[in-house]
Amino acid sequence: MSPESDPRYKFFDPAKVLEDLHGDTAGFHRLAAAYLADLDPLLHSLAAGDARTPDIVHRLRTAFGIFHATRGNLLARHIEQTCRSGLPPPNAERRALLTEMIGLGEELRSYLDGRALG
């Protein structure tokens, strides 16, 4: 049985991530550090309108999946499908995706720093 989700985290589920990693906190830290290292370049690409590149959005789907970032994952999947159909994603969806990316980054930083959220 999985540990209870921590309600202080709105953008990802640390308990589920650690369960997937069999409690490997070092692995969690490596994954989080990799996401955070990629965050600024991805934010700049998406803010510049590169959200039409399905590969960028697919990378985000992978990251959101790893961190059990459900809203971000669903949004990225929808945007990826839109891109693959040849249409640009609506600006509101692109902004929402940026919000999910930033929120996940902030929560990961807080979690790694051991700061309490809430």
Give a quick rundown of the structure.
The protein has helices at 14-20, 25-47, 54-66, 70-84, 91-113.
Give the tags.
single chain; 118 residues; mainly alpha; 5 helices
Describe the structure.
This protein is mainly α. Helix content is 69%, strand content 0%. It has helices at residues 14-20, 25-47, 54-66, 70-84, 91-113. Helix 2 packs antiparallel against helix 5 (91-113) and helix 4 packs antiparallel against helix 5. It is elongated, with a radius of gyration of 14 Å. The relative contact order is 0.17. The model has no long low-confidence stretch (mean pLDDT 85).
Strand content: under 5%
The helical percent reads 55-70%
Secondary-structure-based class equals: mainly alpha
Please mark out the parts with pLDDT under 50 across 5 or more consecutive residues, or reply none: none
Principal-axes shape call: elongated
Q: Mean pLDDT, rounded to whole units?
A: 85
H-E order:
HHHHH
Radius of gyration: 14 Å
How many strands in all? 0
The separation of the N and C termini measures 25 Å
Assembly category: single chain
How would a textbook summarize the main sheet? none
Number of helices, counting only DSSP H or I runs of 4 residues or more: 5
